[in-house]
Amino acid sequence: MRQILWGRGILNDLRCRGPYYWSDLKDAYNYRVIPSVVFIFFTNLLPAIAFAQDMFDRTDNSYGVNEVLMSSAMAGVVFGLLSGQPLCIVGVTGPIAIFSYTVYEIMKPRGTPFFPFMCWIYLWGMVMHFIIAYFNWVSFMKIISNFSCEVFGFFICIVYCHKAGEMLVRQFETDGVAAGFASVTIALLMVLFGLGATVFGSQLHYFKPWIRKIFVDYGVPLSVIFFTGFIHFGGYLGDVHLSRLATSRAFEPTTNSAAVGRAHGWFIHFWPGENISVGDVFIAVPFALLLTFLFYFDHNVSSLMCQLKEYPLKKPAAFHWDFMLLGLTTGISGILGIPAPNGLIPQAPLHTASLVVHDHNGKPISVVEQRLTNTLQGVFTFVLMTGPFLIILGLIPQAVLCGLFFIMGINGFHEGAVINKIRWLFLDNDYIESDPDALPMWKELSRIPKHKLKYFYIYLTLQFVAGVAEFAITLTRGAVGFPGVLLFFMFCAKWLWKYIIPEEDLEYLDGAVAEDFIIKSLEVHPSDGEKLQYDSEADDKLSA
Amino acid sequence: MRQILWGRGILNDLRCRGPYYWSDLKDAYNYRVIPSVVFIFFTNLLPAIAFAQDMFDRTDNSYGVNEVLMSSAMAGVVFGLLSGQPLCIVGVTGPIAIFSYTVYEIMKPRGTPFFPFMCWIYLWGMVMHFIIAYFNWVSFMKIISNFSCEVFGFFICIVYCHKAGEMLVRQFETDGVAAGFASVTIALLMVLFGLGATVFGSQLHYFKPWIRKIFVDYGVPLSVIFFTGFIHFGGYLGDVHLSRLATSRAFEPTTNSAAVGRAHGWFIHFWPGENISVGDVFIAVPFALLLTFLFYFDHNVSSLMCQLKEYPLKKPAAFHWDFMLLGLTTGISGILGIPAPNGLIPQAPLHTASLVVHDHNGKPISVVEQRLTNTLQGVFTFVLMTGPFLIILGLIPQAVLCGLFFIMGINGFHEGAVINKIRWLFLDNDYIESDPDALPMWKELSRIPKHKLKYFYIYLTLQFVAGVAEFAITLTRGAVGFPGVLLFFMFCAKWLWKYIIPEEDLEYLDGAVAEDFIIKSLEVHPSDGEKLQYDSEADDKLSA
Questions:
Q1: Is B35 exposed, middle or buried (CB count within 10 Å of its CB: 0-12, 13-18, 19+)?
Q2: Which residue of B has its CA nearest to A422?
Q3: DSSP secondary structure code for residue B62 in this structure
Q4: Short-list B385, B341, B394, B405, CA closest to B170
């Protein structure tokens, strides 16, 4: 009975979303599209170039700004035009940056050419994506619980802050102590201005709300521009040499070197036996498995997050089709020798948020669901690969990128569930009970009966340990295995924690990631009567 | 008839306050005295040593840490034990630092020995203080309006921030670019932690309120201690040499040099003709006039501010007696060759605030009015002049002092009337009307009728110009004349502005500094029927 459903997920997706294609174009005729494009372009670009610099430094210049721009541009156009959920922003993420340079670090001593090897990882990965999409296995997303998602968010923020520190240390090493401290100063000021703009825009009360929103939306890009200029302020800043973002020639790969397997420009020759040994082709399989799991997790969670209940979406999702598409872009990335893009957190949900239409009371009433914003930001990214824009990008000091990493990390911590649970531990209970501004999560945690609190502490400790463990492995020689650690804890959350925390309490603490209505869209066959527990039910049980 | 009242102010003060002397000692037996002493000790000490470093640099080491400590210690003990208002903290202020080094800069090229000259300024100043006290002229405080007070506060904050920047630049000059940028980094972090502690303690909701109060009270001293240790953190900080606070030998003057007129240790030989020319003795008179006006203004305003209506004080004030006492400490300072102390803002009001006793609803019910806190902080400051403590003080990096100046400046701006009026210009009116946290001042400004607003703009512009003018003159060769500029604008506020702004509006915008009940205590003869306009009356007029 079951096998006739194979491929049904993709077909269903096409059948459901297809009829909306024309409206996806027509609905773009809306004012909100303009600020949204500008906002998402910068929000996508800035972390991407920061990761580009990081990969550039750690792969002996194999990957650089042009590879990252190419990847982001392709992802924007492909997902903008073809995906079933064009609100999901796809691009170069922190995890893929770590994955890429750790593969480089592992394979370089073995003499394996980098690009053909990456190409095979991506090609195997493409096949695995296709298999997952064809067999409707994206439905298994429903077993991923909040535990892993929250830990992943926590892990990413640690990575951001660590990268910032690492890159600052590199400034000392390459440009000397004076330039190093100048970089620390710039990074600190950048953080102050970047986060200050958000605080100014959202917590303070200067100007009218619509002007304040400009500070929230464009504070970070404006800080990048300001501090890129600031280093030319003169005075003692003129006495130090500050490294800039490393760029190369327009539309060309950063490095054309036969040594790493890139002798033919953008097109990687990956024939086994000729450009890479047959053995290495198969060594790429386990890497591809790790990559596929990473993308399965990261992309689908991004997609889920850009269509949360709080955004009043009206058009259907298309998880199976999109995952097949992700396989395709992964394969193309391999052949072009660029890092493969996947769903971006927090860019994807921020993109949806930027398209929400509110009524006079600030209540969201609809979302401008269309394909233009995603596509256009991809096109603009492609334009950045022209000479003049590369020169402009090349003006950005690396210290500014460090500040950018800090801003992303701190913002992420501020919003992240793990950190907000830790904050709750230290918060004044009077405040949580009396202040309407206290997070709903805190109010809920404060309602946990005292004798049940120990389970919350255990759960939080497990999350903290898992996050730190995931980060710790990225510092070791086994760094590339970090998606495996993620997978391990995902299984723990599903099958192991219930031996530590009574099941009804675990259900309360750890809900399913996908919300009710999304899970329905993940499934391709009628529900088999299995009933999932949701927060509200578990809540009733606990308080009963 | 009038001359029989001469000296009556001082006598009245002694007669009124005298009977409380025993209770001033007895009332010190209260728990609040302990945290208050610790708090005011650091709050007084830290800016003092920052000014010490500044004077040290700008007077060729004539004044240094020991002179400043001696001055603060003497002031604490004398005013703690003998003054009529022992809550008023007296010490080395920013203006006297500016006054001192500008006198040095003016007189040094003339070959005048610095210490005998300062001694004569202070001796003349003492005489002038006595005259003012004897003729009850402290009563004229009532003609000083809010205009000058607010401008003075604004001016001081600009000076703080400017000093911070100046001292940072000096780090580049003396220790090189690397140490310079390291200092900037430390100063920035110091500001983040120092102000962050205040925000953490007053705006955020972690821990119980009494723990948060610790962050507010001790955040800045703890930051000083932390960052003094931080420079030994190692890494690249070990590669730079950071200048520390300059200290000298225990209980000895910083410099014993005949060239500047300090050949005999603490005791300055000031005999005319022998140690200083007779001409110079008389040149000291105009300087003494400026100094006297500065102290008249600064000390009495400090004293007023530490006995505002919001602090429920029960014991009487003693302005005339205290001003005579200030003349005495000024004279002694001259003879000891130390900068003369006077009333400190914001330390004086902060001191009273630290002694307020609240009921369960946080309403102030009384103040622990006693002599112990002021005296003890003076004694502790004296103890700092011992060898071991000087060594500890000598560990403090100058970068930390820069951070301290920034913190003082920013805190001052945040509380200052001029800046808060400027903030009002940019604030969202909806917020001011609806949010209970909006400053009462803003709510009041928002009630000004539209056709009257132009007078507010004019008034604020005049304040801004006056503040900037006062600061600007400190950058010129005529820096020492800045109290004259203060005096000039005081007269403008009294007699000139009314030709620009209609009198009833000016009355509304510019109230008397001294509140009703204080003015009564300033006057020594029955009121001659002249009626002063207060805010509330002017308010009624405007809204009518």
A1: middle
A2: B206
A3: S
A4: B405
Is B397 an interface residue toward A (CB < 8 Å)? no
Pairing of the two strands B356-358 and B364-367: antiparallel
Q: Is B206 on the interface with A (CB under 8 A)?
A: yes
- State how far the Cα of B484 lies from the Cα of B416, in Å rounded to an integer: 22
Structure confidence by residue, pLDDT tens digits, B227-248: 999 999 888 999 999 999 999 9
Q: From chain A, pick out residues whose CB is under 8 angstroms from the CB of B180.
A: 178, 181, 236
Contact A181 B176 (CB under 8 A): no
> Exposed/middle/buried for A304, CB within 10 Å: 0-12, 13-18, 19+?
buried
Beta carbons of B177 and A236 less than 8 Å apart:
yes
Paired with B397 in beta bridges are B244
What is the value of ipTM here, to two decimals? Answer: 0.86
β-bridge partners, A427: B206
pTM of the model: 0.88
* Sequence-ordered strand ranges (E) for A389-524: none
Beta-carbon contacts of residue B430 (< 8 Å; ≥ 6 apart): none
Q: Would the CB atoms of A205 and B435 count as touching at under 8 Å?
A: yes
Convert A480-519 to b/e letters by CB count within 10 Å (16 or more is b): bbbbbbbbbbbebbeeebbeebeebbbbbbbbbbbeeebb
Produce one character per residue of B235-245: b if its CB has 16 or more CB atoms within 10 Å, e if not. Answer: ebbebbebbbb
DSSP symbols for B5-24: GTTHHHHHHHHHHGGGHHHH
Contact of A142 with chain B, judged by CB distance below 8 Å, is answered with no
CA distances from B520 to B296, B311, B318, B444, B525 (A): 18, 17, 12, 27, 9
Answer whether B70's CB lies under 8 Å from B338's CB: yes
Half-sphere exposure of A231 (CA within 13 A, CB side): 25
- Supply B389's token pair: 């403590």
DSSP A174-224: HHHHHHHHHHHHHHHHHHHHHHHHHHHHHTS-BS-HHHHHHHHHHHHHHHH
Does any CB of chain B come closer than 8 Å to the CB of residue A310?
no
- The tens digit of pLDDT for each residue in A194-240 reads 999 989 988 888 998 888 888 888 889 999 999 999 999 888 999 99
* Of residues B192, B206, B427, nearest to A205 (C-beta): B427
* Chain B residue numbers touching A432 (CB-CB < 8 A): 205
Q: How far apart are CA B58 and CA B104, in angstroms?
A: 8
